[in-house]
Amino acid sequence: MNRNKLNDEELLQILFNTNWSDSEDGLDNSDHEQDLNNVQIPEHVDYPTNVNDEVSFDLLDLPVEMQFDTGETLILPSDSKSNLTYQNQNTTPRRSIRQAFSSPTESTSNTTNQSHSRPKEKNIELTNLKWKKGNLITPSACLKFNEPTLHNDLLSLETPLDFFAYFFNNELLIKIKEETELYSVQLNPNKPVTLSIDEIKRYLGICIYASVLHVPKIRDYWSVDLGFPLIYNTMSRNRFELIKSVLHFNNNATMLLPNNPNHDRLHKLRPIIDHLNNRFSSIPCKETLSLDEQLCATKAKSYMKQYLPDKPHKWGFKLFILTDTQGYAYRFEIYSGQENNPIFRKTTEPDFGASSNVVIRLTRNVPVNSNHKIYFDNYYTAIPMMEYLYNKNIYSLGTVRLNRLPNCPLPDKNQEKKMKRGDSIEYITSYKSAPISAVTWKDNKAVKLVSTYCGEIPKSEMTRFDRIKKSNIIIDCPMLIKEYNKHMGGVDLLDSHIGRYKIRFRSHKWYMRLFYHLIDLTVVNSWTLFKRVKEIKKENSNIELADWRKQLAFTLIQSGQIRTSGRGRPSSSLEVKIASTRPQSFRPIKEVRTDKFDHWPQITDKRERCKMPSCKGFTYLKCTKCTVFLCLNRNKNCFTNYHM
Asked: Do you know which InterPro entries this protein is assigned to (predicted)?
């Protein structure tokens, strides 16, 4: 933070040119009327009669008086042994002036930099809120929400690859290809690495397959005992490790130095973050949204790594995510410690502080005047931010800390102990144009919530277990508690989807762990969008996430030409073939079957039934890429028809 350092001459002018008889509150008398503007000057302090008399005056000889809110006063004694003189300007004073003053002769740019370091003025309207007991009831007509329809382009998507490619499209793949090749040249100009789009797709397919099939080490996927054919036949181990070592997403040459005010700590991932946020937010939002934190667990060394003791994995990168109740992420933001930097805030957006600004940024693409509802916890809740959302017809509800409710007479901790289980108290007020309802409800512990559209009524009943009576009891539950519990779990649901099957590849590069996490996030979003499309079409969508990942990975690794294993693997013995009474029958995905690339008939020693629907013939020919048996003779051409 930039601060102006004042020399002693400027400090003297401030001290002796100020009218100390005027009180800070603008009243006629000072805070202590009995003082009657009398100023007590210590006897040992020689103050100059002339402002220019600088030699005989020592700033550190002035005693410092500090007064606390409790009324106690602490006087710091003067320091007569100060070395602060005008002849020695290099000496650092032991007392520093923390108030930053601006000089009228300073440049405009310097004044602009000082504006960020000045303390914020108190919001008088917020500090003077008046609360009263009452109930906030919003008419149902004001909360009416019209469910948005999906575009025809989304309704036409069918396969896992279609939904995944909607987010991870060719534009992003080309960007990754170009930046990876550039980074390989920057590392070693004598050994540049050339990639193709199909190779990047196969690399992603192996990563997604690895999220379902877990082995101790990455190299075990190519081992003799633990190897998986669909992986080691797709790409060699050396090629996979080479791509992994040079995979890059942004040009290092354009990254600003850390001391630059426009330095972006997430520069290495910025194209991926911006692209995915744009694609995720292109899906129309549902009525209820929730905002919460997510942790990308890692042991990588990075100054952006956070410690969250309430999470199963304590250390990792923190993400702020906006989701719906189904777990679809509309927008995300990776914590980097630069949340309050003005370069990440639009000129039309107010500054409500680091936590509330996260809500403002993540709700930029939420449609206004559509009666959306957003839920968050006490880290984000603040009355000015909720009023800002209310002016956009976005209702909000969240838990709150008592110190963020000025003058609110809600019970404190001692009064909460006297409340019975199921009791609730509601106070209402209005801040600018927004109605505010604050409710305290006692369950096992007291919880405080604030809302702009509902209060404690109408109440409902809920069942709780009483430890003393050793039986279930029925207690009252306010409406906003029921609303919060019903709609707040979107991010937790997303965490559970990612946690079941996630890419566990380790890397010394901190941004690779985040890249794998964003791939998992994209896969889960594509699966959630698939279920939403099927629900609109009223079709069956009973496909589990593990099967979704397997189908998507199988489609990606079939991109382009299939690699033939060049090393010898022991063939399966007769006993192994006999023991396999129910061999797995592979069915290629539509994209692989109809890509018209690298499909060749192969004559085998085994005769099997043709896999073409409605064909009951037997054949010795199979497709080398699809690995299915198909008829190909003068009477039937199932091989050609199957790949059309």
From this structure: PGBD (IPR029526)
